[in-house]
Design brief:
single chain; alpha+beta; ten-stranded mixed β-sheet; five-stranded mixed β-sheet
């Protein structure tokens, strides 16, 4: 069997090699030498065969995408719109482009007549056009006295659909906090995108309370039981509120040798939360040797609260009752009165030193406030710096164990009463989380400032009060306000709820301080442009804003 298999395999092998079939022959298989054309210039054939002549050849690289050769379904515009294929197949040449050279008269459509619609389709189209023009309102022309028909589908409805999802931030003209003068020299320009990823740890264990001044009143816990059905009217307080700047503080002057950077908690909170701000603001910086003093202008609106700063629809800056300026004054008024109304007037917590801003000539009592001058180390890659911060605390309370806890009191106000009805009165008791979420969205910057100020002051509790407008019963009465409820948080935990990264806030402060430390001695202005995420530092003459302050003081006299 093996011999027969070998014999058959040998015969097939001989036929494949075209060997002679004569057995016993030693003739080798035939091998024909191919014709090799030598190309002395390059490589490849020198003579093109007849069957390959007149065929276009287009070279292409490996990086070229291979597109479609032809379009049989008419999707050329769609492909170009979505850029799914390359416009030029096989490289960037024009070798495969089609050029029509024949007479176009040879082409003829099968049917050039206009397609006719049935009677039912024509009647339906006329009915649709007539329904679209159906009037919904008839208005009398004052000149002719005739009735004018307003079509149902007008351009107003179409424009409302086209403008869906857009806000009015580009339409509201924001006012600059200060006028940039020609003699100001631009020193530093910082974009918010450059400081949004900074991080710096806050050494809480190394913070030292240098001086504590003032007296606090205890919080009245009866206001925790206030609801929409048992609301409390907001009462006006005649107490004095002192908004003293950094350089006018006598205690900071005493501590001038203890640190490098000096500022108040409101100024530091504005700087540390600057990426959330949309309105304009400015801060005065004075470089004296190795020390920095962050100050505010006397005639500025720096201490006024903002309303709906980060909302999609900003309040209009006009002369109406809900303008930006009037809403800011209303929010500040509510916040001051709320912080004094919810206190017990007969119980006080006194610090060792009295309020440094109270004088004997004051006609009214000072508000319940305490000032804590804290020494905070500013860590970082550069030289270690020390920050002296004056922080405020509004009240004091006792926990379940009888320990004293400091508290900051802030008020959230409802001003946009839709149709004269308060939405908070309807939803605050059952949907308080939704209302707070809306406030977090519309007042993101203001809530962040309050949180940072509470952390700088070392407050244990941050309590919010929900205040809304109460409509007047008669035409002569003014619009009042009512307290609908309260809610409290721990400042550090609330910072996480509003997505406030404190390490990023400290990193922003450190970068701005380092930029100012690189400047020479003099007076500067840190300016936030309205509606833009840019901070600019200008060098100004030494007497800038002093003439304006003198003029304003003379006008008050």
């Amino acid at each position: 069997i093996c011999s027969s298999f070998k014999l058959s395999y040998y015969n097939e092998y001989k036929s494949y090699l075209r060997m002679p079939s004569v057995e016993g022959s030693d003739t080798l298989p035939d091998f024909v030498t191919p014709n090799v054309c030598l190309n002395p210039v390059g490589w490849g054939p020198t003579n093109i065969p007849e069957k390959f002549k007149d065929i276009p050849y287009q070279p292409f690289n490996k990086s070229d995408s291979l597109g479609q050769i032809t379009d049989w379904v008419g999707n050329l515009l769609t492909e170009r719109r979505y850029n799914r294929h390359n416009n030029q197949p096989y490289g960037s040449g024009q070798h495969y482009s089609y050029y029509h050279e024949e007479d176009e008269n040879s082409f003829q459509l099968v049917d050039t007549s206009r397609p006719q619609r049935s009677l039912y389709q024509r009647s339906r189209a006329r009915f649709q056009n007539r329904r679209n023009l159906r009037p919904t309102q008839r208005v009398q022309d004052p000149k002719t006295g005739r009735m004018t028909v307003i079509p149902k589908y007008n351009n107003v409805r179409r424009n409302n659909w086209n403008n869906r999802g857009h806000d009015n931030k580009n339409q509201v003209k924001l006012k600059s906090s200060v006028e940039v003068r020609k003699d100001w020299e631009l020193q530093v320009e910082i974009e918010f995108s450059q400081i949004s990823k900074l991080h710096l740890q806050y050494p809480e264990d190394k913070v030292v309370n240098m001086v504590e001044c003032g007296s606090l009143e205890y919080y009245d816990k009866r206001y925790d039981r206030v609801t929409t059905k048992a609301e409390r009217p907001l009462q006006m307080s005649n107490r004095l509120f002192h908004y003293v700047s950094t350089t006018d503080d006598p205690v900071i002057r005493e501590l001038a040798k203890e640190g490098h950077v000096f500022a108040t908690d409101s100024i530091l909170a504005t700087i540390m939360t600057c990426p959330r701000s949309y309105y304009s603001w400015d801060i005065i910086i004075q470089r004296v040797g190795s020390r920095l003093f962050f100050d505010k202008r006397d005639d500025s609106d720096f201490d006024l609260l903002t309303v709906n700063e980060t909302a999609n629809e900003l309040p209009l800056n006009d002369t109406s009752g809900n303008s930006l300026s009037k809403l800011s004054l209303e929010a500040t008024y509510i916040n001051q009165n709320f912080s004094q109304q919810v206190l017990k007037k007969d119980q006080k917590y006194n610090f060792k030193r009295p309020n440094p801003f109270v004088s004997e000539d004051d006609d009214h009592d000072a508000s319940s406030v305490a000032y804590r001058y804290r020494k905070i180390p500013l860590l970082g890659p550069g030289e270690p710096l020390t920050l002296i911060c004056r922080a405020e605390v509004d009240a004091v309370t006792q926990n379940a164990y009888g320990d004293e806890q400091f508290m900051n009191l802030k008020a959230l106000n409802e001003w946009d009463l839709k149709g004269g009805a308060s939405e908070w009165r309807q939803k605050l008791d059952t949907q308080r989380g939704d209302i707070l979420t809306t406030e977090m969205k519309n007042n993101k910057c203001k809530l962040a400032k309050w949180t940072v100020s509470s952390i700088l002051a070392g407050a244990d509790i941050l309590k919010f009060g929900y205040v809304t407008r109460s409509m007047p019963r008669s035409a002569g009465e003014s619009i009042g306000h009512s307290i609908l409820g309260t809610q409290q948080f721990i400042p550090k935990q609330f910072a996480g709820q509003i997505s406030l990264d404190m390490s990023n806030a400290w990193g922003i402060l450190r970068v701005i301080v380092d930029k100012c430390m690189q400047l020479s001695d003099g007076k500067y202005v840190l300016y936030k442009e309205p509606g833009k995420g840019i901070l600019r530092i200008y060098k100004v003459p030494p007497n800038t804003f002093e003439d304006d302050a003198d003029d304003s003081s003379e006008d008050e006299k």
